[in-house]
Amino acid sequence: MHNHSVNNSNKTKGGKIANRFLVGISLIFVSLFSFAATYAKQDGPKVEINGVGVYSPISYADNGGTWVDVDAFFHVLKASYELDKQGKNLIFKNETIPVKKHKNEIVAEVKDLAEVIDATQIKEDKDGSVYLLVLPEGTVQISAAVPQMGEHWTNPQEDILIMENDDPVFKTIYGVYEGKLVFIEQMISQKYFVEGKSFVNFAGMKGLPSPAIDHTNIEFIPTGHEGYTMPHYDIHHYFITPEEQAKIGLGGENAHH
To answer: Angle 117-81-88 (CA atoms, 0-180°, nearest 5)?
Structure first.
């Protein structure tokens, strides 16, 4: 009887320990799911830099504008910033914009952030989402929108590899449609491929956020086209789907680039 009682006592204690263990595990899972839900759901305004989302529960929108979590913003931008001694102004590349505290974090108005980082364009949609186009410094538009591509932008000082019969051989072209980045492109002369010439370390979006490449087209243009009349290859890396690409309409220029 004595041994039997001890066994029952052990079973009771074991059951309690097991129950506590299960409760503890359940609480951990609940906490993990709550944490994941907090960051998976974007309750605040949708803000993107080159199509990369700036996700934070701190960001919010009101009648005064769209206020963005500064830490989250510069994390996406892969850059650092400073605050003045009073914590009321943000300093970036010797430029200053006002900031304020919200939920014990620092936020700034998205238009001010666009200005301080020298964004190429800012696009605000009717649903309240904001898209900042940030191309490398010195990049300028060189064409209107081309069907199934969009506008073409490049840096005349940095992205022209060489001149061939007065035609520029571009290292990188940036495709933009309705204020959004849709592709990057290189145009390489056919003769360089025949000669087996290598090209390495094209800058592209180096140092700037960019979305994942959806697909790549490598097209041979035997007679060239306006802007580059030599036989060459057009290499497009698209950030949008082929279906989205097909919807890009005419924008005043029909040349193939």
So the answer is: 95
Residue 141 near residue 151, CB atoms below 8 Å: yes
CATH 3.60.110.10 matches 140-246: no
Using an 8 Å Cβ cutoff, are 214 and 240 in contact?
yes
Distance CA 91, CA 80 (A): 10
CA 211/CA 86 separation, integer angstroms? 36
What's the one-letter identity of residue 164? E
Q: Any bridge partners for residue 97, and if so which? A: 90
> CA angle 19-22-25, nearest 5°?
150
Q: Check residues 21 and 87 and name the one with the higher pLDDT.
A: 87
* Nearest C-alpha neighbor of 242 from the set 216, 220, 219, 218: 216
DSSP states of 79-114: ---EE-TTS-EEEETTEEEE-EEETTEEEEEHHHHH
| Residue 61 reports pLDDT greater than 50 | yes
Which pair of structure tokens corresponds to residue 176? 């933009």
